[in-house]
Each structure stands twice: as C-alpha cells, then as structure tokens.
Amino acid sequence: MFSLYRLVPFILASTCLWYIGCSFPVRTGYDRNIGDYKPVPASETAPPKEEPLEATPQETAQEAAPDSSKHLNSAEKARAAIKKKETAKAAQKAAPKSNLETFARQWMGAKYVYGKATKTKTDCSGFVMQVYKGYYNIALDHSSSKMYKDSRGKSVSRGSLKEGDLVFFGSLWKIDHVGIYLRGDRFIHASTSKGVMISPMQDKYWGHKYQGARRFK
Fold first, then answer.
1. pLDDT tens, 166-201?
2. 148, 215 contact by CB (below 8 A)
3. Of these residues, 16, 71, 124, 208, which one is catalytic?
4. Catalytically annotated residue among 71, 142, 177, 208
5. Pairing outcome for strands 195-200 and 186-191
C-alpha cells in the first residue's frame, strides 16, 4: 500500500506531460505522419523583392531636363549665327553691287604709281579717267584738280550724292585726290598706300579732307 502511494506522483506527472504534448499548438507545416515539419518551399524562403522607389516629381524633372549649360551654349551660337547672317544681308541691301561698281572693281588691287593709268598700276586721276572712259564713254583729264574745274561737271551737295559722282579731297587751296562715289556712302579710289580700294566717305583720314563733288552724267 505504501509503495502504491509512492507511485502516484509519477503517474500524475506522466499524465500531465502527455496532456501538454497533445494540447500544445502544432506549428504550421508539421506532419504527424512523418513526425517532422514539412520542408518549406524555396519560393517562401526567398527574400521578398524590393519594389523600386517611385521617383519624386523633382527627380523626374531633373532627369528629363537636358544640360542647361549645353543648351544655353547652343542657343547663343545659333543667335550669333543668325545675327551674323542678318548683318551681312543688311550690308548687302544697303550697298548692293551695281554694274558701275562691278566694272570699277576690275582695278581692285592695282598699285599706286604716279602718272600711270593701267589696271595694274595707276594713280587716282588715272583710275577715274579709265573707269569714266570705259563705262560712261566720257573723256577726262589726267588730273584731279582739272577734273574739279571741268565746266562739264555740275556741283553736287554732300547730301545729294549719287553713284558715279566724282568726289574730291584735299585742302582749301588744293585738290589732290579724286574718287568715284558708290552706293552705301562709299567711294572707290587709288590710295597712295594701298592702291585701288573702297573706303567709307566717313573714313577717319578722308572724311575731313572732303572738298566737294561733281556730276558729269
């Protein structure tokens, strides 16, 4: 009888352990038939894929926007090219080449040689004499002062100059240079330093030497 009482605690402990084992919640995937947990599929063990973060409107705008510095340089170059073309067109429109200018340009580059009158060597009056004879069939003296005094020439004011008029330069006491007026307020002449060339009437050297003009046609 005494030994039976001593076995009661062991019997109760075994019963409690069996009860706990039966009532303990089984983890998902446990297979009682195999006495172990089922293997977890690889798809469930793989780490979740990270979803790409959405770009903020500011980042999207920065990516979409081109390099502003390059765009600015290109725009500046384009504007400069357009301006250059417009300037060139304006110059051509202001002073288009006429038949007279085209004819007179045949002497361009001729060296200045006093007393000569050819397409390679000429002085100022010799150049004007050749052009007037070849283009207008008007014979003039080989002298700028005599051309200025020629009675056939009509005096013309500075503001009424037309292409083909003769323009004279020098001082109050002497006329020592002559040229042919061209469109665009220019004149073509034989310079002692550069030969036959085209200069503006407001040239810093010739502008203050202007003495008058004559019209022969």
1. 999 999 899 999 999 999 999 999 999 999 999 999
2. no
3. 124
4. 177
5. antiparallel
CA 207, CA 143: separation in Å to the nearest integer?
21
Q: Specify whether 142 is catalytic.
A: no
22 is known as an active-site residue = no
- Is 189 catalytic? The answer is yes
The H or E element spanning position 88 is: helix 68-94
How far CA 10 is from CA of 1, 2, 5, 61, 213, in Å, comes to: 16, 14, 10, 78, 145
| Catalytic residue selected from 16, 71, 189, 208 | 189
Whether residue 2 is predicted with pLDDT greater than 50 in this model: the reply is no
Assign 24 a pLDDT band (cuts: 50, 70, 90): very low
CA dist 130 → 92, 98, 139 (Å) = 26, 18, 9
CA quadruple 64, 66, 67, 71: dihedral, nearest 10: -160
Report how far residue 33's alpha carbon sits from residue 52's, in angstroms, rounded to the nearest whole number: 44
Residues 181, 167: contact at Cβ < 8 Å?
Answer: yes
Radius of gyration for the alpha carbons in the chain, expressed in angstroms and rounded: 53
Q: Which two tokens stand for residue 107?
A: 């002497």
What distance in Å separates the CA atoms of residue 30 and residue 117, rounded to the nearest whole number?
122
Question: What are the structure tokens assigned to 62, written together?
Answer: 């920065």
CB atoms within 10 A of CB 168: 21
User: Which regions of 18-89 does DSSP assign to beta strands (E)?
Assistant: 30-31, 36-37
